[in-house]
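Predict the 3D structure for this chain.
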Amino acid sequence: MSFQLFLKSLFTEPSFKPGERVNHISGGSIKRTDGCVVAKTESGVLVEWPRGGSSMIPATELSVIE
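Done. Predicted structure below.
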């Protein structure tokens, strides 16, 4: 059963809720840390960073901080 959930996760875009804390991971390395999701749009996810303002990031390049 868990293998099926894993396969499904490979083909679905992750969803993010406003207020979630995220890291930006691109090319296997962490680009930015401890961002806060502001909104999700068709263009990507708007994230506010502690330093550096905010930016629109593709959902596939974000990882939720748990």
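The chain has a mean pLDDT of 88.
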